[in-house]
Amino acid sequence: LGHIKNDDYLNMIYSASDIFVLSSRIDNLPLTGIEAQASGTPVVTFNYSGLPELIENKVTGTLAEPFCYKSLANEIMWSIEEERIKELSIKSRIRAENLWDKKIICNLYEKIFDDILSN
Question: What average pLDDT does this structure show over 27-48?
Fold first, then answer.
C-alpha cells in the first residue's frame, strides 16, 4: 500500500484488517499499534521492550516470544479464530478509548502542567 498520508484512508485500512502484526525489533511504543487498536484491530507483537505496553495479552491482542517467527505465527493463528477475533476487536477499541482518547490525554497533560506550576 505504500506510505499512507490520509488519516481517513489509514483508518479504513486498519478497520478492514482482522489483526495488525507489529513485528518491529526496534520501536519502543509505536503509534501504529495504538492506531490499529483505535480502529478496533487487535495487535500481535513481540513480548519485548515497550511493545507489551500496547496490549493486554490475550485480551486486546497477543504477545509472541521475542523475535521468534514460529511464536509469532502461532500467536497470529491463535488470534484469528473466528469467535476470538470478534472479542479481541471489541476489547481493542474499548481499551483504546479508555487509554488514548484525546480528552483523556489532554486531562493527563493538564494535570502534569498543574503539578509543575504548583511546585
Answer: 94
Hey, what amino acid is at 43? V
Residue 63 neighbours by CB under 8 Å, 6+ apart: 45, 46, 47, 51, 52, 55, 57, 75
Which cell goes with 1? 500500500
Residue 45 CB-half CA count within 13 A: 30
**Which candidate, 87, 72, 95, places its Cα nearest to that of 20?**
72
Separation CA 62–CA 59 (nearest Å): 8
Write out pLDDT tens, residues 47-88: 999 999 999 999 999 999 999 999 999 999 999 999 999 999
pTM: 0.86
**Owner of C-alpha cell 505465527:** 73
